[in-house]
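Self-study notes.
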Amino acid sequence: MRNTQLLDKIKAVVAMLPTIGTVGSQACVEVAGAGYERALWIINTGAATTSGLLDFKVQKAAATGMGGAADVSGAAITQLTAVANGTGGILVIDMPVDPAYPFMRAVCTTTTAAIVCGAICLLYKGNGGNGAAGAYPVSTAYALQAVKV
């Protein structure tokens, strides 16, 4: 049995900077998925005003900079309302990384009133960029602070 830690198998990337409830388009960060087969997007929501609405989807592109980005089919959250959100929760999108379009970004918009939110993307099932399952990319970066005991 191989002795490994979970962080040896995944790469955590900030996908959307946490907000304090600003209305409009949220600040999302490009995620480079080359070398991984799957991307798990975790959206954490918090407080919302009664008329808050949140739309969240994932786009992909062939090159960095997201030029010509297209929506990923099926990788969208049904519009979240403040009533459904309650006092907060976690939403998840688990999708394959398209090797021809490995650059991804979240597109998140809050309308009418804001919902506090943020997101991370966990890249997993590394293939080392060569298609061999389980061959994790050498350049796997850890979170800013990872505590391994």
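Second protein, same conventions, sequence then structure:
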Amino acid sequence: MSLIAFLAPDEDMLATARVTLAMTHPEIRLEQGLLSAGVRKARTLAREGVEIVITRGGTAVAIKRPSWALR
């Protein structure tokens, strides 16, 4: 099981991540989720044992909010 996940905001970035990481870091789990969908996805990933979620912008800010883990 992967301990690291990359959470892309859209299909284009997800496709870029697939190409970029396929050969160098195939152990990184790639998922898509933006803002509240990204928070839900991060919550699911954490329940599945993922310890590190890489994301950006508003999704990262939303995940950092203390209340996200309680829902």
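Instructor comment on the second fold: The chain has one domain: 4-70.
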